Amino acid sequence: MLLVCLDLEGVLIPEIWIGVAERTGIDALQRTTRDEPDYDKLMRYRLNILEQNSLGIREIQETIKSLDPLPGAVEFLEELKTWAQIIILSDTFYPFGMPFMEKLGWPTLFCHDLEIGDKGEILDYKLRQEDPKRRAVEAFQKLNFSVLASGDSYNDTSMLSEADAGILFRPPENVAREFPEYPVVQNHADLQAELKKAAGHLASPRGE
Question: Does the predicted TM-score (pTM) go above 0.85?
Fold first, then answer.
């Protein structure tokens, strides 16, 4: 009865918005949840930039097609699913995230959605719920699952705090510094090992 909940961008795939910034030359889109903990503020900022530059879903999906999972991510998931069930909890959007699911072997993805206009313009974003990563972990625990979680940004920390064990994967220095209670790993092999260690600790009758 073990679930592993993983963030998507920065853990399994590159940061999509950074890819869009690099493809379009709009440096302002480099800003991510690693920099801005207020998700609504960040998304309003992004949507305003898209509108100013007449960019829509087509341009973003062209960028997504050019991106591949992070090196080692597919192999990491292949091994992980031999001993745990996997849920991807992300603050991305289904039109962004689903193209990556095929590349990752079709894990389950929980994320948000977009309101897209007739001409492909992104009008707004629709949260599945507030603080969705933490609430998902909380719901899984109520179903009697033990939950391990890993992410890299500010928006992952409530998920890590709710989980039975949380691990930071390649976090920026500011996040690692502000949340020293979580172990930090820098590659997928170490993440696999840390998850197995945490699972073993949960399985021990004495938590040893």
Answer: yes
